[in-house]
Structures are given as C-alpha cells and as structure tokens.
Specification:
This protein is 48% helix and 9% strand. With 687 residues, it is α+β, with helices and mostly antiparallel strands. It holds the Pfam family Pkinase.
C-alpha cells in the first residue's frame, strides 16, 4: 500500500511518515477541506495483535482532559486500520537530544508538574498507561506549545471498574509490559501493574532528564530475558541516594514514596506535586514556560543569522574588490582582501622605516601585524558555530592578539597609552548559561566593526601631531597617505556607499540601542503575560474539574445517606405497626443505643427497638442492619476526625450484604475494614 494520494475518512490525505508507535506508524495528514494538518496512525489489519481500535477507544474514554489528543476519526481503509488524531510537536526525547541530552533543573521541574497531572488524570479515568517514557510525551504546537501531551495508549489497561471502583486482583508471573529502561521493579518481578508502577516509571524519566543517562543503560546480554534480568538487578542494587546523588533530595523522596506504595494504593499526587513546587520556589525560578529548548532555539537562530550576515559581508567585500580591480590600473590597485587586513603599503613602511629600525622592533611590529590579522579573522568567522555552541576559536584568542598587538604599538610612543577604536569588541562576551536564568541575550549577529579594513585611522592616535622625527607622527602621515590612495581607487558608487555607512554608524546612538532594547523587553513582557493568562486558565480548569469530582462524591454520599435513612424509617414504621412485638432471644435480634454500640444491648421486651443486631450462626460475628451500620460508621473515631467518606464506605460495602431474616445486614468486621480503607485512601480528597 502506498501513501501517495491516499485518503482516509474521505477527507484526510496521508503525507510523509513522521514517527511510529508501539503498534503502528504515524503519518502527517491534511484535512482536504480546511487544510488543517493532523496526524494519521496506520496499522495493518493483518497484524498479529491489532491494537489501534483499542487505543482509539481509550482515547475516547479519556477525551476532554488536558494534554489528551482528540481522535477525529477511526475506521478501516483498504488493508489498514486508520486513526486520525491531533497533530502534536516533538517528543521530550527529541527535545532531550536537541539540548545535548541534559535538561536543567528548572526544565525538569516544569515538566514534572505537568507530567504528574497528566498521569493523575489517566488514573482518575480508571486506566494505567504502562509505557511511561520520554517518547510518549509530546509538546503541543502553536498556542499550546508549552503543554505536555500523552500519547500511545496501545498498552494501557483498566486497573479498576469505572463504576464500582473495585481494584483488579493482585497477580504474579506476568510478562514485562512497557519499556525495560523505565519499568518499575515490581514490573520486572512479574507483578501485575497498578498506579504505583506508572509513578515509579515517571521518577526514572525525571532522573533520566537530570542525569543524562541511567545506570542500567548500555548493559549487554546474550538474550533479551538476560538483559531484562541484568537491568532489574541493577535497579534493585542501586540505592536511591546513589541514583539521585548530585540532585535535590526531592527526587529521592519521590522515588522512595512510589516504591513504598502497596498494590492497590492510590498515590498522593498533590503531595508529589507539592514537593517539586516547593523546590521550584526555593530555587527562585519563574513559572514562565521558558524551557531549555527555547533558549537553545534562540541561540541557534542567532548563530544562523550571524553566519548569514558574515557570508553576505564577505561576498560584498569580494564584489567590491573585484570591481575595484577591474576599474583601477594594475599599478595602483589597492589590495584589500579581507576586512581588517593590514594593507601592504603599511607593512612596507613598517619594514623600511629608518627610525627605530632595529631587529627587535622589526620583529615586534611584524608579530603585531600578524596578530591583528589573526584577530580580524577570528572576528570575521563569528563567535559561534552553526549549532549554537562555542567554536574552537572562541577562547579569547582574537582578543589576546589584539591586546598584545596594541601593547606593541604603544612601545613606539613615549606618550600616554594609545587607545584604538576597537571599542566594539568585547573579549569578555559570553552567552549566559540557560540553566541559570530564563533570560537570554543573543550573540552579536555580525563581527565587530573594529576589525574592518579601515578600523585603524589617524584619529585613533592622540599624538597625531608629534614631531616629524617620531615614529608615531610618521605612521600617522603614512596612514593618511594610505587612506587617500585607497579613496582614489574607489568608484563613485563605492564612495557614496562608504559615506552612507559612515553616516549610519555615526547615527547609531545609545538612545537608539535603548529603544530597541525597550521594544524587545515589551515584546517579551507581552509574551509572558499571555503565557501567565494561559497558565491561569489551565489552573482554573483543573480547579473546576476537581470541584466537579468533589460534588459528584458528595452527591453519591447524600444518595447513600438517603437510602440508609429510608431503610431505617421503613423498619421503624413496621416495628411500630406490629405493636412492639417481643424479639426472640439468643440468636435473635438485639437492641442497642447508638451512644454505646458494644455494651448497651437491651434485654427482651424493652419498647421501641431502633436497630437490629444479630449473631451469625456460622462465624459468630455480629450482623448489622442498615441503621446499625449507619450508627457504627458515625460513632467511629475516624469519622469524627473527618477522615471517612460515607459514600466511599458504601461503595466498598456493595455486594457484601447478607440476609438477617428481615433485610440486608453487614458483618461488623467488613464495616470496620471499609471505614479504615476509606480513611486511608480518602485523605487527599477530604482536605
């Protein structure tokens, strides 16, 4: 099957391949009606284990969540299952490689906050991902370029019933599912995966971003099983303190917490987010969505602009040289091969100057000229390479050449130190470390003007009117003569252009530079404000979603209370209708007052029994009817402390009711265990 001119869903055209997932290939697609670009995932219908339809259903179950792509269409075309989904940006693995395989602490913390929220949402929808790795987290595009998205749910699985929330049973001897590098230790041991395993895998991903590599990468083995066993052994024998050495203690806390969770425990997502947010604030970072790849992108763009500018200037200089050579006589042609090169006439004068013409001074001045030419070459080559990194020549060599040559020139004058016009070259210029701050100052886009052909002029020497016998005065006169000769060789157009360049250079003032800087600051401030608004809206959306879930739980709790009250009221009315019939003894019903559930069992014949407590003949355990169960829950210390959700207890007791001869009843031990389980699992929901 070829992808050329192939359409799916009658409106999506398939383009080039852009990636691959766990069970299919991903192509760039286009909506032929609107022109919008989308992603199309294809899977052969002859695949041994088709997964795309299942993945599409998972996407549908998760639809509406932040960072969950939207499925536009799913169906079968020719011999392929096709799923049309939102187009996203690069994966975190791609960006990790783009940033030389190391993320700063700020970037890791910015990502951690979003990653924990994404996994929490997936778990709230009763799914576990089971393949947490950097390749499955993609950044958005356009307005959502700072948002982390989760993809590839081909291995996702439900860990509980969506309605009853009954957890799947504990199992062992399971095959490894997911990526071995980031798999949890329990997954390596063959234990059924649950929520704790997704969170542990996320911890390995964050350490991978901080460290650059994990200790169990690159292990060799004869078979895949042996390799997995070696990875498991390395994970189990590497202490968290060693794994997190050199990084904040919060990463060790996170990993120890996730490893301590039991099979059916619910992770405390709020707590995990909080420890990283506190670290973010303690490091004085700004939540400005400035990631490492944002800084590197600006660096590379600036380097490309500088290279293009340098190439353009070189071509213009070559063109001017060729034009001057064609128009001027051969005998008077000025040789100006490169900007900043020392003219041949000046070198001849320096070599044949009779004043102070000693072997030492000749050698010194010759070395000075060579250093000046080397410095000009360093400046013309640009400070940065095409990848935005510092090149081999960016070691201050050009600045050292210039300074040393300048000192040698000063030896020729007995006056004060000579100040040349190399003011625009800043040998201390360095790009600020992107990991230390979110601000970035791009490198200069063109070589300093001080290394141009005419940078050393007569105005640069303060003693331009020295004695005729002094070397400095002679050099000043020679410099005037060289400039006039070069001016004679210029065409009218070149002279006009040169005058315009000088006028433009003279007009550049600190005020103009400050206005450009102010414009750039306004633009950056505007971008930050927009990003803050987006962040605020996302936080409000998350808050509203949490409030909605809380209201749902309260509604379920009130519905349960209503059912219990209805059952209690009906039982009370029926007992009054029987004219307070006496209750049987021994195994029959017993009455009690809610103030003392265990001791206030009243004897037979007391009027108006309120609740029913029987003894199970098989186990000897108390059986509580609805009213007695209600009073036991409300009288429990955990409920009085506000740690028990009655709705959650009711859900846990579903399916456990027995008949006590008159209606449903629950074992006392089951009720107590449900209360304790609700208190253990519901703290984060009740706070």
């Amino acid at each position: 099957m070829t992808t050329m001119d192939l359409r799916v869903g009658n409106k999506y055209r398939i383009g080039r391949k852009i990636g691959s997932g766990s069970f299919g290939d991903i192509y760039l697609g286009t909506n032929i009606i609107s022109g919008e670009e989308i992603a199309i995932k294809l899977e052969s219908v002859k695949a041994k284990h088709p997964q795309l339809e299942y993945e599409a259903r998972v996407y549908k179950s998760l639809a509406g969540g932040v960072g969950i792509p939207f499925v536009r269409w799913f169906g079968t075309e020719c011999d392929y299952n096709a799923m049309v989904i939102d187009l996203l940006g690069p994966s975190l693995e791609d960006l990790f490689n783009f940033c030389n395989r190391k993320f700063s602490l700020k970037t890791v913390l910015l990502l951690a906050d979003q990653l924990i929220s994404r996994i929490e949402y997936i778990h709230a929808k009763s799914f576990i991902h089971r393949d947490i790795k950097p390749d499955n987290f993609l950044m958005g595009i356009g307005k959502r370029g700072n948002q982390v998205n989760v993809i590839d749910f081909g291995l996702a699985k439900k860990y509980r019933d969506p309605k009853t929330h009954f957890h799947i049973p504990y199992r062992e001897n399971k095959n490894l599912t997911g990526t071995a590098r980031y798999a949890s230790i329990n997954t390596h041991l063959g234990v059924e995966q649950s929520r704790r395993d997704d969170m542990e895998s996320l911890g390995y991903v964050m350490l991978y971003f901080c460290r650059g590599t994990l200790p169990w990468q690159g292990l060799k083995a004869a078979t895949k099983k042996q390799k997995y066993d070696r990875i498991m052994e390395k994970k189990m024998t590497t202490p968290t303190e060693v794994l997190c050495r050199g990084f904040p203690n919060e990463f060790s806390i996170y990993l120890n917490y996730t490893r301590s969770l039991r099979f059916d425990d619910k992770p405390d997502y709020s707590y995990l987010r909080k420890i990283f947010r506190d670290l973010f604030v303690r490091e004085s970072y700004q939540y400005d969505y400035v990631f490492d790849w944002t800084v590197y992108k600006y660096q590379k763009n600036a380097a490309m602009i500088a290279d293009a500018t340098n190439n353009k200037k070189d071509k213009e200089a070559d063109g001017r040289q060729n034009a001057a050579g064609a128009q001027a006589p051969m005998a008077t042609t000025a040789t100006a091969a490169k900007p900043g090169a020392i003219s041949s006439q000046r070198r001849k004068v320096l070599d044949h100057n009779t004043l102070n013409n000693t072997p030492d001074t000749n050698r010194a001045m010759g070395g000075s000229d060579r250093m000046l030419r080397s410095a000009s070459k360093v400046a013309a080559s640009g400070a940065y390479g095409p990848a935005g990194s510092r090149t081999k020549r960016d070691d201050g060599y050009g600045a050292q050449c210039f300074l040393h040559a300048n000192n040698l020139h000063q030896l020729r004058s007995p006056g004060p130190p000579v100040i040349t016009n190399y003011h625009s070259f800043d040998p201390s210029f360095r790009v600020q470390n992107p990991a230390a701050s979110s601000s970035f100052v791009p490198p200069p886009h063109s070589p300093p003007e001080s290394f141009s052909k005419h940078s050393v002029s007569s105005n640069d020497f303060p003693n331009s009117h020295a004695e005729p016998g002094s070397v400095e005065g002679g050099d000043d006169q020679l410099q005037h003569r060289s400039s006039s000769e070069e001016k004679d060789n210029l065409t009218p157009a070149q002279s006009k252009r040169k005058a315009q360049n000088r006028a433009a250079a003279a007009n550049i003032s600190p005020i103009g530079a400050s206005s450009q800087r102010a414009f750039r600051e306004r633009k950056e401030r505007h971008v930050r404000e927009l990003e803050e608004k987006v962040s605020t809206l996302e936080q409000e959306s998350t808050t509203l979603a949490a409030d909605n879930e809380r209201l749902k739980r309260e509604l379920a709790k009130y519905a349960t209370e209503n059912e219990v009250l209805r059952a209690t009221t009906g039982q009370l009315a029926s007992s009054q209708g029987r004219h307070l019939e006496s209750e049987p003894t021994v195994t029959g019903p017993m009455k009690y007052t809610p103030t003392d559930f265990y001791t206030n069992l009243v004897p037979k014949g007391e009027p108006a029994p309120t609740h029913r407590v029987t003894i199970c003949e098989k186990t000897g355990e108390k059986l509580l009817d609805a009213g007695a169960t209600w009073d036991l829950i409300q009288g429990h210390e955990l409920y009085k402390q506000g740690l028990v959700d009655i709705g959650d207890v009711s859900n846990r007791l579903k399916g456990m009711a027995q008949c006590n001869g008159q209606g449903p009843a629950f074992r006392e031990g089951q009720v107590l265990r449900a209360i304790e389980a609700s208190a253990a699992a519901g703290r984060d929901e009740l706070i």
